[in-house]
Amino acid sequence: MDLALANKFDNILKENKVYTFANAEVKLSNVKYTSIKNEYCLNFNHNADIQEADDDESIQSQAFNFFNIKELLNQCGQKTVDFIGVAHSCMPAKEKQLKSGVTKSQRTVYLADESNLTIALCIWGDFANKFDLGPDEHPIVAIKRAQLSEFGGKSINSNEDSQIMINPKHKRTDQLQSWYRYLQDPSDLKCITMSKDKQDFPEEKKVVQFDNQRLIGEIMEALTCVLISGFQKMMIRLITWLALMRTVKEKSLKKVLDGDANTVIEHIKLATLHICQVLNLLMHLMLTSQIFISKKALLQWAYQQISLKILKIKETFKQLMIHFRIGNLENLG
After folding, report:
1. Which of 85, 117, 122, 298 would bridge with 157, disulfide CB 3.0–4.6 Å?
2. Which tens digit of pLDDT belongs to each residue from 213-243?
3. Residue-wise over 265-299: b if at least 16 C-beta within 10 A, else e?
4. The domain 3-52 belongs to what CATH superfamily?
């Protein structure tokens, strides 16, 4: 989306208003930039039509997909997450100078949940100065679109796109308040984040991490093109095959064809899962390693891994096509 288009939509869209959306392009979601559990996202271009609609109270003003701390422990690589927890303790605000030379306020708040663990939430900007708690104050803190970090253990960070809410109207607020109220000894809670006061982020790590994040975005775009190109050709063949099945009169043959078509679809789903695992591993290695790896080498490695997965799917199609004498895959890229 270009800047002019972004400004156009920015003038139209207002928070907590209801809109109708038309002429959007459906694309695969990038899990790095969203906490929504959906494989697809809507992309708006110059053909998009956005109109304000009448208010509808049945639509929630905020939709959350909360992780608990135990679930965050099992996440690899940088991800965008929603989290809610009890403010267990709060550190004083500090002024931090960024690489750009800009100074920003930063405060670390340790949040707890029923996992009997705590995790550090790093709040940046003006809200860091406003968020100051007394020793006996333990509000419920919810953050939407936080960035999960793995440096120094797990932690979550606010960014310009994050929303932080204190004691939100949500069932989890009541549950956490009740749990913390009857907690026998809050001092027994274990933290999964290294102390940010004892170990600050070294400048070298910041540089490597920034370069890796930018490189990951480029790699994801390149790999998405590879996936779409290969899968589109295979799905066209599958759709043609399924259309042919409708003309088959013998029920027994139709049943066999239908069963094998489902098998092929399952192969595609499994291959997609494996590809996602490869990408997650790639992200994890890049974000935790300080060794410089050339962009070309990374792209070649990732392309090779995905090509192997696509080759397996193509072989499955080939065997099924030969078995039913429907055609061949000579023209499949």
Report:
1. 122
2. 555 555 555 555 555 555 556 656 655 655 5
3. eebbeebbeebeebbeebbeebbeeeeeeeeeebb
4. Nucleic acid-binding proteins (2.40.50.140)
